[in-house]
Design a protein that fits this description.
Oligomer: single chain
CATH topology: Rossmann fold
Largest sheet: 6 strands, parallel
Keywords: Hydrolase
Protein name: Isochorismatase
CATH class: Alpha Beta
Organism: Streptomyces daqingensis
InterPro entries: Isochorismatase-like_dom, Isochorismatase-like_hydrls, Isochorismatase-like_sf
Structural class: alpha/beta
CATH superfamily: Isochorismatase-like
Strand order of the largest sheet: 3-2-1-4-5-6
Radius of gyration: 16 Å
CATH architecture: 3-Layer(aba) Sandwich
Shape: globular
Distance between the termini: 27 Å
Number of helices: 5
Pfam families: Isochorismatase
Strand content: 15-25%
Amino acid sequence: MPHVSALLIIDMQNALVAISHRASATVAAIAGLRERAKAAGVPIVTVQHRGEGVEVGTEGWQIVPELVPSADEAVVHKTSADSFLNTDLDGTLQALGVTEVVVTGFATEICVDTTARQALSHRYDVVLVADGHTTSHRPASSELAPPEQSIAHHNEIYRHLDFPGRSIRVLSASEVHFTPVETPRSAP
């Protein structure tokens, strides 16, 4: 089976990016990956959460302008941290012939982590983009790890995560290289 990547962009919606740590840098990293994926013909799948604070049709629910999917890109709607649960994500990836997901988005320790682990369970290889995922701002008094520490922690966990039969890599956005997808030629 040929190796086919897809760029997975999770929950990069107005309301969520507004509360994100290093939002502009994360959006820029993902936007750069998105442009390179498009240029290589690599599928891009946008995951859009709906729920409290991100109700369907509201401004907060909309994907940030820099990452709005084009008409030919897949959009998957979810209602939980798991982008595979009760969605058509797996079917979408299978239909595209995808064997590896390049994971980006919000929030590191919730939707990004849950979806990346579920991708492994669904038999996809995973690339976690080290500077392409983020989490929420938090007060210093929070019992949650500070954002930079949480992001670094998850990147390190994925560097050591062992999942039989699966490839797991943690790469910066600049280290992600998309292999151009060849389109079949028509017979003369």
